Amino acid sequence: MIKTLIIALLFFILTPTDNINAQNRNTDLPPTLHDSGLTAIQTEIIIDSIGNKLRTNYIFPEIAEKMLSKLENNLSKGFYKSIDDPMEFANKLTQDLQSVSNDIHLRVIYAPEMIAEEQKVVTAADSLKFINKQIDRMKRENFGFKEVKILDGNIGYLNLKGFFKAQYAGETAVAAMNFLSNTDALIIDLRQNGGGTPGIIQLITSYLYGAENMVHLNTIYWKPTDTYTHTYTLPHVSGKRNPFADIYILTSSRTFSAAEEFSYNLKQLKRATLIGETTGGGAHAGGMEFLTDRFAMWIPAGNAINPISNTNWEGTGVVPHIKVKAEQALEIAQITALDSLSKKTQDLQMKHYYEWHLKTQKALLNPIKIEPDILKSYTGRYNERVVTFENGKLYYQRGDRGKYELTPLSEDEFKLKGLPDFRIRFILENNTVIALEGYYDDGRTDRDLKSPKK
Asked: Are residues 261 and 209 in the same domain?
């Protein structure tokens, strides 16, 4: 059990983009020489080991036989004879396997250091030291939680770069979800998320639903054991849930594996709006198998079966509701969220609040250009308020307070960079600026006349 945990944990740290399922592994590995080259015998041993692992573990037995047939056929024809570099050989085997299966989770890797590190673990003390070392690595990644903040308009933002094991990442996940629990909408950014383990998906999703009903999220069929596992939202979580917030998930072509499961689950449940690019298309769960003392293989052993669609996203990816380039997804999500909140609320003050921030986001997405002569006409003193033109930009300062750069929302209305709850508008009569009006996100306004030039 300890060795199984160690192998899964080590590979998850070195390759935190995959859905890992620990399985029984044979540590009596066929040897290979520890030089940089490959012999014909070593090549045969590796392919024979691949065949054994595929037949035992791969989710689709018929495809496993076709993959093995291709490798054996290539071997007999001498296609691998000229490959001496182990890394190149691993890449070639991966290409050949994927050319038959189209399974981008399935791959062979050259990893002598990883395998050697695991094989050094013998005693319980070795195991504890090894595991703590890996946990320290996960801590440096903050268990995948890259950024948690509240955006203007009371929109929560979670940048999640990996789904680490819940037993390690759970405390950080609870803290993040509680911090975001009072938001009116929540944006979960998975654009740089390559996957991980399903347990943390269950935990995070549970905060997006009430406790009254357990929601069926996913089912996985495991070929090696001929069993099914079913995942539901949890009946209890620490702290406060946020079941009524609008949820938006940002995706890219790099969003993969467990990150796709999270997106697919919530899309099928109609709990989230997906914005960005179609994801990578890897739905199979599995784990790492060692082939020799230098080569390992990640083998999909589980097939995801969504309880609503009765299928998954393998090979097709998860298609977003709103297709935009990944780099634009956050801005589009903010605009979509604020527009939706504004339309839903019956509270006039809240409608003003959402529309205030919506106007800002639209202006930031499509910046307004104003001629320098017009900008210069706004400069001057307005009682204790002063507007200056510096390096092609307008700046605002009131008394001895800080100076703020002005960003145009229209030709005469400006937001203050770094001050989201206050704006100014220039008042004109007969094409002449006569006053500056300040107004606030709660509806308050004030006005100062422009002082005549001396």
From this structure: yes
